[in-house]
Every structure is written in structure tokens, then in C-alpha cells.
Amino acid sequence: VLTTPTVQNSPSISSTRTAISGLVDVGAGTSISFNVQTYDIYGNPFLFNTPVLQAAFSVVLTTPTGTTRSVTATTGGATYSSNGLWTVQLSGCAVGVTSCESACLTCHAGTTTVNIRYGSISLISAFSSVNYTVTALEPYNRQIVFNKSVASAIKKVGEKSFGEITIQTYDWHRNFVTKPNPTTPVVGVFYGESTPICDGTTVGDESVAAETRIETAMTYTSNGVYQVYMRSTVVGTYTLTIFIGGSIVCANYEQVEFVPTDFRANETTVTGYSDIAIGGSGSFYLNFMDPFGNMVKPSALGANTTIYGLGEFNISSSNVTWIKDGSGKHISPVGLSLTGRVKVDYSTTTAGTFPFVIAVDGNNLTSYTSASGSNVPQIKSAFGEVASFS
Predict the structure, then answer these.
(1) Is residue 130 domain-shared with residue 184, that is, in the same domain?
(2) Domain total for the chain?
(3) So which domain of life are we looking at (predicted)?
(4) pLDDT by residue (tens digit) across 72-123?
(5) What is the side-by-side strand order in the sheet with 304-308?
(6) What is the pLDDT of residues 139-148, one digit of tens each?
(7) Is residue 24 domain-shared with residue 99, that is, in the same domain?
């Protein structure tokens, strides 16, 4: 009787003949299943027919962060079939699920190196490289943050920010979103110190109050970072928030204050002056303006305001002190408490017509408002009632 001999393992497993199939690149959190075919040094399937032999098989993963993770028959993930064939399951984790994150083998973006081992023997040739690459998913709403330098908290109007504010995007698994994505973040702007509400409101609805007051733009740099650029000509506090896919990023916002730029004499206005009766009084307003029409604090520049031509008048203001010198000029170093507008009250006991000029730091103001449209202001004083104009 003829019998078929049983072929046993050779004494040595091959470190150069191992074949791997089905190992693919995936998006973060997607499970991978691949096969490992082992051979002995003569090209025969290496048989793992006993628990002891199976316990010696392992798949060692070196993650993008440099840590190692092992998949074995004992711990789970490696299943022996027959004839030297193993099936290896690399567990993933779906978006929105937190319970599987710690065990996930495909959640970290980057390239993971795969080594197959039999005990201390590597079954991957030293000249071969086996790996898989995980790519980040789309930006995830609750994983996106602003980063703001102190210098970016206050800007002058008309001044373009230079990307001091950045948006750092992550996917659900906290991977950097490494390239611009169809679901690109959008900066929404509120005018005022409001706290954005996580209500899913669209960008346009949330930003409409500020869209005519501020310009924003973004530039993608790398590693999920977008630089935010802003410019506004209207003073005030702006609250910036982020939208992903039309939904507001919950409880994530930054505030930027735009302050007036340097005031200019030719932008500053004098309004409200009028003729008066002897013994009566009138008032006008000094409106210190920057080139964009915002009221400024000239005191920040150490400005002195001088009124020429009203030497016969008594001049006073509630928030600044006016001093009349020997030549009839009224001079006031504008106080720090000013908000850009000064009310000047005046009266006289002298009849006449008094053209007047106002100068700030020696620069004459040329922007006046009068009934005639003239830029040469004058105040008339006379006995009896006088109709006022402005």
C-alpha cells in the first residue's frame, strides 16, 4: 500500500519570501484587512499548526508618531487560516464614535510601517518597505480652533492684518487637515462683542451685520493652517467665528478691535455754530476725525487745539479747559478723556461779525459746515434776537 508522505515545516521560516496582499491606503478611521502568506526557506508554505507557533506570529506597526503597536493571534487582529496564510485586521473607528479611538490602528494620519515577525525574526526583507498611509478627513466642526497673537488683538482702521490670526483645522481624529478641502472653513464676522451661538445658522445670516464694515480673506499655508487677513475702515470690536459647511463652529471665536488711525486736520469737522444775540450763547462741535470718518482721540498725539478770532468771546467746554492768551487766542491741550468730539460753548457782550479759525497742532481745520456752504466760518453777534443757522 502506497501512502502519501506528510511534509513538515523545514527548520527555518523564510525572511525573504513573505507575500503581503490587500494592504491599502485609507482615510482616517477606515479599517484595513490584508493577507500575509508565509513560506519556509524552500518555498513551501510555513505551517502554523500549533498554538505555540501561532503565538510567535505578530504584525508590528510603527506609527507616524514613532510608537509601536502589535497585532497578534493572542491579542486579536491576526487570524491563521491554513497553509501559512494569515488574515490581519487593522481596526478603525468611525467619525463620531469615541469608544474605539484608543484601539484604532488607522486613525492617525501619516505613514505607518508594517513589519511581520516570527518570534524575533523579521519576515520582511531588510531591502523591502511595507507600509500604509492614512489621510486626514474633512475638517470637523468641533475640532477647529483660532490661534491669535497678542499683537493682532488691536488694529488701526485701514491697516491690513498680516495673518497673525490663524485657523487650525483638524478632522474628527485630531489630524491636521493637510490640504485645502471641499469643506473649507469660512470666517464669519459679527460687529460687536457678541458670543456666537452654536445654532447651525448659515454664514450669510450671521455675518450680514458686519459684511459692509470689514473685509476678510484666508490663505491656506500647511498642516491644516489657514491665515486670516482683515481690514476695516470702521472702528469697533469685531467678533470672528468659523463656519464649516454652513454651520457655526461651536463656542469658538476671537475678538479684534479696530481703533482710529491718526487724525488729520483736513478731515476734522466743525459743526453747529450759529449767530447769537448779545447776552445769549451758542455752541459748536469739534469732531476730530481720521481719514475714514471715525472720531479719534487727538490727545493720544498730544494735540493742542487753538481757536483764533474769537478773542471777544467767552469760551468753555465741560470736558476740556480753554486758556485765552494775551493775543486773544483760546488754547486747550485736549484731555485724555475725550472720545473725539468736543462741545464748545461761547458767548460775548460785543456786537460784530467774527470770522474764526481753528487749528490742531498748528494745522488749520478746513472742513466746516455752514448754511451758506462757505468754508470761512464766522459768528455774528447783535442786539436782540438773531436767527441761528448751522
Answers:
(1) no
(2) 3
(3) Eukaryota
(4) 999 999 999 999 999 999 999 999 898 999 999 999 999 999 999 999 999 9
(5) 323-324, 330-333, 304-308, 357-360, 363-364
(6) 887 777 777 7
(7) yes
In angstroms, rounded to a whole number, what is the distance separating the alpha carbons of residues 92 and 107? Answer: 7
DSSP track, 50-104: SHHHHHTEEEEEE-TTS-EEEEETTTBBEEE-STTEEEEEE----TT--TTTTT-
Under 8 Å between Cβ of 92 and 137: no
CB 282 within 8 A of CB 274: yes
Residues 110, 220 share a domain: no
Q: Is residue 3 part of a domain?
A: no
Q: Which segments in the chain show pLDDT lower than 50? A: 199-210, 336-337, 369-373, 386-390
The grid coordinates listed for 122 are: 523579521
Residue at a domain's end among 234, 259, 284: 259
In a domain, 343, yes or no: yes
Q: Which helix (H) or strand (E) segment is 224 a member of? A: none
Does residue 387 sit within a domain?
no
Q: Which three cell numbers stand for residue 311?
A: 478773542
Instruction: Locate 287 and state its grid cell.
Output: 469732531
Cα 324 to the center of its chain, rounded Å? 52
Phi first, then psi: give them for residue 113, nearest 5 degrees.
-85, 135
- B/e letters for 292-314, b = 16+ CB within 10 Å, e = fewer, are bebbbbbbeeebebbbbbbbebe
* Domain end among 83, 112, 135: 135
Contact partners, residue 67, CB within 8 Å, separation at least 6: none
Instruction: Enter the DSSP assignment of 15.
Output: S
Tell me the whole-structure pTM to 2 decimals.
Answer: 0.67
The boundaries of the domain holding residue 164 are 141-259
